[in-house]
Amino acid sequence: MPLPLNTSLVQFAEIFVSTQNRLQQQFGHLVAWSALSLVFIMALVVILRYGFNTGSIALQEAVMYNHAFLFMLGIAYTYQQDKHVRVDVFYAQFSANTRAWINVIGSFVLTLPAMGFIIWSGWDYVAVSWRIQETSAEAGGIEYLYLLKSLILIMALLVISQALSVATQSVLALISGNPPYNTSEKRTSQQPIESTDLNEGKL
To answer: How far apart are CA 170 and CA 148, in angstroms?
Structure first.
């Protein structure tokens, strides 16, 4: 049964979800280009090694940097697209409301505390790296190791933003009596939220 809604609060929540998801998608598409960069750099490393019998520590480390950039910054986008691998034996069999409750509880009990712990435990690790302007331990390596380590905190913040979006969508679904949202499909900011869109993914 739908609960009474505070119209202004609901509108704010819908704007937050729509904006967050749109930005997450745009950022994810940008990060995806690092896969092409990764292929190019790896090909260059192979050509230099086997074609010219030479190598580059910086290029080899650039492969690692690209891997880190792609995976660490792609985690939240994959979450937003609902593409993370999970054991779906029971979840798919639950009612729409039960799935919404699972999304809310999972966000606040699992995802947010886990990301908070990563930020708490990684803050000094990253801060020290920035303070000493940490560089590669290898001669000729990339000098910006502190930037690489910063991805730990950026990843956690992006996932927190997405977890709040998922929880907000599910709460909106519960109070409106509609099925929960699915964030994996696109909605323009001009489109209203229809009941048939919920959990079929139009936000």
So the answer is: 34
Amino acid, res. 39: V
Alpha-carbon torsion 178, 78, 16, 29, what sign? negative
Q: How sure is the predictor about 87, in pLDDT bands with cuts at 50, 70 and 90?
A: low
CA dist 184 and 78 (Å) reads 9
Tell me the Ramachandran region of residue 2: left when phi exceeds 0, alpha when psi lies from -120 to 50, beta otherwise. Answer: beta
Separation between Cα atoms, residue 191 and residue 71, nearest integer Å = 32
* Rounded Cα gap, residues 118 and 112, in angstroms: 10
Q: Which residues make Cβ contacts (< 8 Å) with residue 146, sequence separation at least 6?
A: 126, 129, 130, 132, 133, 134
HEC-encoded secondary structure of 93-110:
HCCHHHHHHHHHHHHHHH
Among 111-115, 164-168, 173-177, 187-191, the range scoring the smallest mean pLDDT is 187-191
Phi, psi of 179 (to 5 degrees): -60, 155
**What does the pLDDT read at residue 83?**
81
CA 146, 32, 151: angle at the middle one, nearest 5?
20
pLDDT value of residue 55: 83
Residue 163 exposed, middle or buried by CB count within 10 Å (0-12, 13-18, 19+):
buried
